[in-house]
């Protein structure tokens, strides 16, 4: 696997309204746990669309891992131009900080937001241009990742395309592991 697409929940879908919310450390730990074995097996590129939440958290994890795995690169391919136009100042800064460290930036459609088809086009692009999908998504909790998940499952019917989910059970396991580590001290 050379190219991995990553996506998942947006912060508001999880009730997270601050970048330093305590849950974020566990979400990042889950991404790290999933990414390291892939990097050790030769992962070269991570592909995100730059949406708030799972994608930007995964990008920050990737940046942290670049010290140990300097060959890994980040591509940010947005569904349309200026997707951050309506975001608040803090979210724009967070997004810009990720773009500043990305190795490649582009947009699927070379225009501003028009209609939801741009998100479908982005999902299709991600599946066609990647070798696998890592998705922070739990089948028990509806949310925006559902559309990418369903498209990936459909794609799997005719293609070899691994889909790895980070679920709430995975997060609970990480929380418990962290608590055990803290008790050992």
Q: Could you outline the blueprint of secondary structure elements for this entry?
A:
Elements: E1 3-8, H1 22-40, E2 45-48, H2 54-65, E3 73-78, H3 89-101, E4 104-107, H4 117-129, E5 132-136, H5 145-156, E6 163-166, H6 168-184
Parallel strand pairs: 1-2, 1-5, 2-3, 3-4, 5-6
Characterization of the model:
The chain is α/β, with parallel strands linked by helices. It is built from 6 helices and 6 strands. It has a 6-stranded parallel β-sheet with strand order 4-3-2-1-5-6, sandwiched between helices. Helix 2 links the parallel strand 2 and strand 3. 28% of the residues are buried.
Question: What are the salient characteristics of this protein?
Answer:
6 strands; alpha/beta; 6-stranded parallel sheet; 185 residues; single chain; 46% helix
Order of helices and strands: EHEHEHEHEHEH
What is the arithmetic mean of pLDDT? 95
* Main sheet summary: 6 strands, parallel
Low-confidence runs (pLDDT<50, min 5 residues)? none
CATH architecture descriptor text: 3-Layer(aba) Sandwich
Radius of gyration from the CA trace?
16 Å
Strand order of the largest sheet: 4-3-2-1-5-6
- In DSSP terms, counting alpha (H) and pi (I) runs of 4 or more, how many helices? 6
CATH topology: Rossmann fold
Shape: globular
Given the helix and strand composition, which structural class is it? alpha/beta
Q: Number of domains in the coordinates?
A: 1
Helix content: 40-55%
Secondary structure tally: strands: 6
What is the end-to-end distance? 38 Å
Q: Can you tell me the CATH class?
A: Alpha Beta
Strand fraction equals: 15-25%
